[in-house]
Amino acid sequence: MTADTKAAGPPVPVPRDPEVTGGVQPLKDDTGLRGQKKKRKKGELLPYLLILPAIVAIAAVYLYPLSKTVIMSFQDMGRRELWTGEPAPWVGLEQFTNILGDPDFWWVTFRTVVFMAICVTLTMAIGLLVALLMRRLTTWVRLALTFALIAAWSMPLMVAASIFRFMADSDYGLINTLIAKVVGEDWLGHNWYLDPIQGFGIITLLVVWGAVPFVVVTLYAALTQVPKELEEAASLDGASGYGVYKYVTWPVIKPVFTMVATLSVIWDFNVFGQIWLLRGNKPEPEYETLGLYSYSKAFESTSFSQGTAIALITVLLLSGVAVYYLRQLMKTGEVE
Amino acid sequence: MSSTTQTPQELRPDRKKSRLGFDVLGLGIALVMIFPVYWLVISALRPNHEIRSYDQTLWPSSITFDNFVRAAQQPNFGTAIQSSLIVSITAVVGGMVIATLAALAIGRFRFFGRKPLLLIMILVQMLPPTAMLIPIYAQLNAMGGIDEYWGLIVVYLVSTLPFATIMIRGFVVNIPVELEESAMVDGCTRFGAFRRVIFPLLAPGLAAASIFALVNAWNEYLFAYILINDNSKYTLNVWLMTFTTERGTDYGALMAASTMIAIPVVVFFMIIQKKMAAGLTSGAVKG
């Protein structure tokens, strides 16, 4: 399960946590050596005992369900099998041929990818610009901005969604009031969700607003690692502001930027809660992304196998991104 | 006036001016970022007739706690707080124990399968929620775990594990092995060395990891919604939905309830804010 954009998101805490940034500096410590010394000293049973509970727990709640997802995708599990416990019949690749042959699926996939691309681009662009701006601020302004970012970051997803739902409400929403002041009275009562493009505009606002703080805080931390002397030397040697950025600043923050961007791709691809909550727990078909599509197949049409098959396709689509992320982590020596 | 004295004087105001431009921009962004939070609090505090109005004003005419009263009188408010507390705290305590053990193993020992394990922990966090949700629902349904706290507790506990393990490991590797070894030379058992030396040093890290885990469990919504159908066992997040009925949404009460749910999270966030920054720079995930 993946985290949504928030520090919370679904169960998983990946979210926008600082962990990602560990890669900021190639911290050299000699624990590796010490560890190796250890290895020779003791017959190692203890580490396995220590880690056993974690392995069991992760196997039970992640790996077992994941294998169930795979198995169920080749079966036909419906409401009856769920409640009676009867074994679901095997249907081979039928679920997949049904899904891939359904134009709806391709529309949903297209929508998911476009939505993800827009959210990631906006989040990363705004995040980078604000992080760069933070270095040029007077201390108290920077503190104020940090405070605002942390306050936005700490809003629980459910609360954030409620706020945006209220602000974009057709009758009592602030957005309509403000626009009506400019455009005219007939804007009052405008329903943002009739047109999915406008609806996704509001959803994008919510997602980007929730995601920017993490990106700024992380990139800003990376920027503090850029040696001031190097930048000064470059500008003394006649580099323009952009030149300094391109040749000195960017190379330092690039690994962190790449990792945050990769994580954003994964998170925004899996956006679920924001759409779900803004559409009052019943997103219309035009609002379905892959996660919601899988959910509605499973729980609304009670074809659990269709749901898992779609989820499995999503996992496969994302696995490329995940592998790329892991390679980045390995490169920065994160997983040692 | 000679030009030599003039140049430095002109340079400085110039620099100030450019800073001022950035500062104004920075303040503008701060306002945009904080505005939804402001809107949440101010809507919770303003009279209901102002909320149910076509003409929303940026500033309330008067302050009232009526919305909070209505939110608190909403059915199941008390049980929702109770559910959220039971589920989050149990999950966090259990999660921290298991995560600390695992972090010690990963941070202190080199053993076969250590790296793959770490990779798995990172990978599982990227799985889409629905890939887990459907089989977990089916499994809990078969085991009678729907509508029970334990089902949700297990899910929350494990979902905080990978992250907490990786985070605590970062703190473990920063504690010199020599400390532990010298305690053992002085006669401590391995467990004694952990309890007397490692644990006290690890405490701040554990606190930070627990807060993260707590916030995540407190904020989780989807699993709580699917796995708990009994409205006397709703967690706070699911309970928030009860403000929306067919007749519309009671936004005033919803905003007041949301404020109450958000306050503990904001407080915790502000507490660990320093830790987060420290974690960022000291390589909280180094090992």
Indicate the topology.
The complex is a heterodimer of chains A (336) and B (287).
Chain A: H1 31-41, H2 46-73, H3 79-84, H4 94-100, H5 103-134, H6 139-154, H7 157-167, H8 174-183, H9 196-223, H10 228-236, H11 241-269, H12 273-278, H13 290-300, H14 304-331
Helix pairs in contact in A: 2-14, 5-9, 5-11, 6-9, 9-11, 10-11, 11-14, 13-14
Chain B: H1 3-45, H2 48-51, H3 66-73, H4 77-108, H5 114-124, H6 129-143, H7 149-173, H8 177-185, H9 190-219, H10 222-227, H11 236-239, E1 244-245, E2 248-249, H12 251-282
Antiparallel strand pairs in B: 1-2
Helix pairs in contact in B: 1-12, 3-12, 4-7, 4-9, 5-7, 7-9, 8-9, 9-12
Q: What CATH architecture of the largest domain in chain B do you see?
A: Orthogonal Bundle
Number of strands of chain B: 2
CATH class of the domain at 97-331 in chain A: Mainly Alpha
Domain module tally of chain B:
2
Which stretches of chain B are low in confidence, meaning pLDDT under 50 for 5 or more residues running? 1-12, 279-287
Task: Return the string of H and E elements of chain B.
Answer: HHHHHHHHHHHEEH
Low-pLDDT segments of chain A:
1-41
- Class by alpha and beta content of chain B: mainly alpha
CATH superfamily of the domain at 97-331 in chain A: MetI-like
Q: Taking all residues together, what is the mean pLDDT of chain B?
A: 83
Number of helices of chain B: 12
Distance between the termini of chain B: 63 Å
Radius of gyration of chain B: 25 Å
CATH topology of the domain at 97-331 in chain A: MetI-like fold
Helical amount of chain B = over 70%
Q: What would you give as the CATH superfamily of the largest domain in chain B?
A: MetI-like
Q: Given the structure, what is the number of helices of chain A?
A: 14
Proportion in helices of chain A = 55-70%
Q: How far is the first residue's CA from the last residue's CA of chain A?
A: 24 Å
